[in-house]
Amino acid sequence: MDKIHRKNLDSPDEKREFDKGKLELVTLAGVTFGRATLQPGWRWSTSVKPIVKTDSCEAPHTQYVISGRLMIKMDDGKQEEIGPGDASVIPSGHDAWVVGSEPVVLIDLTGMSNYAKS
User: What is the DSSP code string of 4-30?
Assistant: First the structure.
């Protein structure tokens, strides 16, 4: 790569909307950045599962939470709550939901290129 690549998530290459959430995507030099905004009441198993038709989220995530709180529950039952300032790596095989009354805004670098696509 011999030049700087720049795009702004406020003018995404693609936008996807689903129940209680939206995803804005930009791709630069083969890397897809996704900004997810998830409203209170959002839960993967009720908002995205009907679209992708898998038992749990199969997308691995490398993400940074800007605002709000998100509970992650792995298929083996382990749970972890993440919030503002947290960077996390979440393997495939999980459910997730917004905790509290504040929307979750996060940036994801690995799990959004096919997220919420049928």
Answer: -----TTS-SEEEEETTEEEEEEEETT
What angle (nearest 5°) sits at the alpha carbon of residue 67, between those of residues 90 and 32? Answer: 50
Nearest residue to 109 via CA among 65, 46, 72, 79: 65
Query: What pLDDT score does 1 carry?
Result: 60
Do 104 and 47 contact (CB within 8 A), yes or no?
A: no
CA gyration radius, the chain: 14
For the chain, the helix, strand and coil percentages under 3-state DSSP, each to the nearest 5: 5, 45, 45
Q: What is the mean pLDDT of the chain?
A: 96
Q: In terms of CATH, what superfamily is 14-108?
A: Jelly Rolls (2.60.120.10)
- Convert the pLDDT of each residue in 27-38 to its tens digit: 998 999 999 999
Assigned token pair, 45: 């198993």
Q: pTM for this one?
A: 0.94
Which sequence spans correspond to the domains of the chain? 14-108
Q: How many Å separate Cα 37 from the centre of its chain? A: 8
